[in-house]
Hints:
By secondary structure, the protein is an alpha/beta fold. It has helices spanning about 10-25, 50-60, 85-95, 105-115, 130-145, 160-170, 190-200, 235-240, 250, 280-300, and strands spanning about 40-45, 65-70, 95-100, 120-125, 150-155, 175-180, 205-210, 220-225, 260.
Amino acid sequence: MRSLIDPLDLSVMETNQLLDLADRIAENPGNYSGVCKGKKLATLFYEPSTRTRLSFEAAMLNLGGSVLGFSSANSSSASKGESVADTIRAVSCYADICAIRHPKEGAPLRASKYSKIPVINAGDGGHQHPTQTLTDLMTIRNKKHRLDHLTIGLCGDLKFGRTVHSLIKSLARYEDIRFVLISPEELRAPDYITEHVLKERNIPFEEVESIDDVISKLDILYMTRVQKERFFNEEDYIRLKDSYILTLDKMRGAKPDMAVLHPLPRVNEIALEVDDDPRAAYFDQVQNGVYVRMALIMTLLEVEHA
Ligand code: NCD
């Protein structure tokens, strides 16, 4: 039985195969409408979510399965003090697969140790978010027709942004990838990413504070929200929250085929005027999120398919 806790739980080959399946699903979703008939997905969300939870649920419903779960810690026995280990033991009796989002780093990994069913990490604190990464990879591949030979700019809260950490880990395995990390000093990517993922493997990267200085060389610009809920004090959040606002004026300096991604939710980081620019890919990501999650559920449940 397999779980997906960290993006590296899938090899490059498995990742590519999963993206191929997601592309086939996107072309013809109807072909997959009954493949998970009789199967149940549990969504255990201890933190707020719109897209991740609903896209997991939509994915399972699209496959002909059904869904159950909770969408806040308050409405689960966590509020009575139950451990994740005990909760997952119970959920293993009700469902065939589960997606778990938790504010504590490592909670989904811990759950997977006690689980009898595949566990999918739907975001653990400021740590990892592997299914958003699959969504991002599918979108990049569709826009650029490759996942190698790319210069990727990641901008905003690189410290607490779990989608950033997972995307860097996964993309760093492809050939000739260069990263441009754009953030205020206080929100730089953690050492375990810069030291252990990038430096140790000689992957070229630079850390800068200004988008304007680097936008012209980017193939992808991945914008992120400042992660308010992970700040210890409000003052720091208020000081940093509007560090970057991508406008059409800034986009004038970018390549005509650069793609702008954002995991969403957006707060202020991308001006609404950018939404109509053909380079804006963040609403494509939302749609792709359903297809990759359909592909992932099928893969982890080892569902036979064409
Ligand atoms: C992200 C998350 O939850 O980490 N959202 C998402 O899943 N699409 C990004 C964010 O909350 O800023």
